[in-house]
Amino acid sequence: MENTIISLVGARPQFIKEAVIASEVHKTNAWNHILVHSGQHYDVNMSDLFFEELQIPTPKYFLEVGSSSHGKQTAAVLEKFEDILLQEKPDLVLVYGDTNTTVAGALAAAKLNIPVAHIEAGMRQYPKNMPEEVNRVVTDHLSSLLFCCSELSYQNLQRENITSGVYIAGDVMYDLFLRMKPRFLKDKMLQNLTLHEGEYILVTLHRDFNVDNKESLLPILEGLNDYAKMTGLSIVFPMHPRTRKRIEEFDLATYLDSMNIVEPVGYLELMGLLEGCSNVVTDSGGLQKEAYYAKKQAAVIMPDTGWKEIIESGWNQLVPGNAAKELLPRILENKFIAYPVNLYGDGNAAKAIVKNIMTYLNK
């Protein structure tokens, strides 16, 4: 009898990770794969590229929970997903990352004695009371299979006495990066923006603790401008609407005069800019990893990150927003670190995950 697995997603990054896994499932005909989308974040502009390249299926169920408080959102997913589990009776539930959808799915499955597999298990980040960290820890302790992106994530679980069913699989986003790399639009972006390879810094900023108060945002803009003047490099800044709004609100627009401000760009365009840049300044969880994949060093404008492997290797460095004026020029100039290889596997994470799930189900 064919096994059935339900894969639960709630946000765009999870959708893409799911698609990498689903692609491997369909390639090997591993099991009956049912996709459920909670609607925690609904992105109507999900790129056709991913649907085409990764053959993302339409979810069988769409829970339409929408935005709400953490408690209400988690409760809504828990209630609606439980009904689906009772109807479909899957052999296992797949969850991803650290959202409210993730922890609600793990709770619903565990209470019905359905095994849970957690992709991106073992990540840990300060402060410990942040909602995403709570979701990670709870999900890990409820899961039967835990797929870690790195050796450090594996060690984090060992320290919490989670030792059964734990695997270092690598990162499915590295699978995606390698798969899409031939399609990155470096030449197009350099031509469109009149850029020269290696002569600009790529910047993205969007997190509330960086852009929602002037005391953090101003030093970041000052640090960027100081470094650009010092080195002669350009600054290419695909600007998030939230950041643009705050810069206007805080009357900081003059700091953008020397920068190349562009509208937010799609994945292939952003990866093209990444391939052509000198280095990166970002507060994006995804881009700090993608910078590592592209062998570009990044200043990560965060107090802490779940991707500590890259920080501990010395390749990327953390920069608190309020200290950015002083630290950014010094950190960006530090380019003499040996590239730490294979922090997140060899690009075959999906294959390892599917293989280990099949072994588990066939026992």
From TrEMBL:
Major enzyme class: isomerase
Keywords recorded for this protein, A-Z: Isomerase
Limits of the UDP-N-acetylglucosamine 2-epimerase domain: 24-357
Entry superkingdom: Bacteria
InterPro entries the record matches: UDP_GlcNAc_Epimerase_2_dom, WecB-like
SUPFAM superfamilies cross-referenced by the UniProt entry: UDP-Glycosyltransferase/glycogen phosphorylase
Enzyme Commission number(s) of this protein: 5.1.3.14
Gene Ontology terms, MF aspect: UDP-N-acetylglucosamine 2-epimerase activity
Family label: Belongs to the UDP-N-acetylglucosamine 2-epimerase family.
PANTHER family xref list: UDP-N-ACETYLGLUCOSAMINE 2-EPIMERASE
Name the UniProt record assigns to this protein: UDP-N-acetylglucosamine 2-epimerase
Organism, as annotated: Aminobacterium colombiense (strain DSM 12261 / ALA-1)
